[in-house]
């Protein structure tokens, strides 16, 4: 009886399919025998590793089909029972629903936080992506080291970040040598080569002490295209740089292939207006590259996605690639010299490297920007159509960073600047390493084998991590020589803390040696003086105190800094097309830190009481800061005011409901955040009264919001009002709205200023 009971208990644990197999063959299926399955899988992995050693290097052909590993073939042949299949389907559906809910909560920005009531929401506004994303440090599993791609392996619970390890030896600087035809400048040109002049200068301790203690001396100059420039330096009285009216490509000391490829790549921006003697650069590119090529820091706050954005992108890509090619050529040339030395002779001191290989870090907001940068780099390296460069993992890159035109919803009317900024793939969580060696490019290179790293602030934040985290890495930032931050204004709409976090971890001494040959490391890196040699290129669409602070406090270039400081003569108020009285009310604050509380107190004491009357209905309150929005919303709830609210985290149904209530007059007030307007650009109908709690970050948002009043019935235009709060600390934003002349008058005024603007202004 005991044996029979034991057999019954054994059969109870089997499915119908297993019982049938047991009756027919007298044994269980190998899939359900863990010991036998383990032996089979081990043999498959041994077979796979043997084949991987014999396999050839992966081809980057566009028509290449990925081969299925033996391991996946085995899993495909082992059919699971219907019960287990149903369970797997339930698990997959649950994970998909969880993923959809996460993407909904993430919103369109990088400050992924769920909307909640109270001040606790503002304090705990931490990005969800940081918590839910594994801080990938570009390390690989054993299967990746064997050449298998596990990024899409279903056996893994989490999708792992792909890095290319197959081409490590081909792109290694230590094991390669300079080709004769790809050499750098000759001996006569080395003395005047900007790269050599900048990197070979050895600072003294006295000079470093001066840069850290003494203030900078500045001078001004006016250039034809850039306008007013401010040159600043600490070490010596700055020699004012003059703009070159004509630039010969041969005088720029570009690396050999770039001299011929740059005119072809940049041809799309050149017009018939350009002089025949200067066929390679636009006037803006010529002046920008003239500054870049001297290795000075540069801040250009007039980048426009519609007009000059791509011109600027091409200019800094040329400079970055020229720097990488020259640096790598120097290393490869020295490798050949060391190889050719006779044994027994003393080795010369070849210090030509940093503590880690990455030299250029490009920070861009979206994947589409990274895609365009890589395309520019490829086109700059291809001399002609016959001599195509070898680009590894190109197919994967296009799939992950490209976009499907059909994904864009049709019939969406948005401003031209919106379409330009949010074109293509707008995912803001990415990072990719790029290695360049002579005539080849390697995408998805591990960071410690990369020359250029292209990433978003959020992508860098999840790698760098925070104190206390086990999985964090920032050693690869130790020897960055060129830092490019493009479209810095967009990071104000995402999460500016990520930029500050990056700046705190760049050019620090690494915690590990990472296999570096210390006999080849430059003394500036060994002395921890890398930050004094780093060139920072900062491009933005506007001047903002937070962006200015990064340029002034985190840039230490010994050569000096150049900042473009043009003040607008006419502000965006001239683009308001409706007849509207504008009242600018000044508030007093003792310091920059107290202005937040002073503005709130001024609003609830002097501004809000004027709008509590039912006559002042349909009032939209524009709030740039999310934290101010939370504070106002809590106050409105406490005072039981009739209001509704829309922010960047409000779901679509909540947005539609709030817009409907406000249009019909069922809600008197509408709290409206700037980041929602930045990412959506909806036209809010029913506005009769406008209150700008603070001046907009983007000056053209002022005219856009004011022009929304024309969507309201024109019969009541006589009751339209617009009130703006400002302080003396808002001088830059105020000048962008009303112009520099009116700003000087308004900052002297102690109360408020009335401006009446018609559509003709």
Automatic annotation (TrEMBL):
Its main location: nucleus. The keyword Nucleus applies. GO terms for molecular function: rRNA binding; U3 snoRNA binding. Residues 1-27, 74-171, 333-352 are annotated as: Disordered. One of its GO terms (cellular component) is small-subunit processome. It comes from the Eukaryota. Residues 337-352 have a biased composition (Basic and acidic residues). One of its GO terms (biological process) is maturation of SSU-rRNA from tricistronic rRNA transcript (SSU-rRNA, 5.8S rRNA, LSU-rRNA). It is found in: Nucleus, Nucleolus. Residues 572-756 form the UTP25 C-terminal domain. Transmembrane segments: none annotated. Residues 84-120 have a biased composition (Acidic residues). Residues 295-562 form the UTP25 NTP hydrolase-like domain. Component of the ribosomal small subunit processome for the biogenesis of ribosomes, functions in pre-ribosomal RNA (pre-rRNA) processing. Essential for embryonic development in part through the regulation of p53 pathway. Controls the expansion growth of digestive organs and liver. Also involved in the sympathetic neuronal development. Mediates, with CAPN3, the proteasome-independent degradation of p53/TP53. PANTHER family: ORF PROTEIN-RELATED, U3 SMALL NUCLEOLAR RNA-ASSOCIATED PROTEIN 25 HOMOLOG. Interacts with CAPN3; the interaction is required for CAPN3 translocation to the nucleolus. This is U3 small nucleolar RNA-associated protein 25 homolog. It comes from Chordeiles acutipennis. The lineage of its organism: Eukaryota, Metazoa, Chordata, Craniata, Vertebrata.
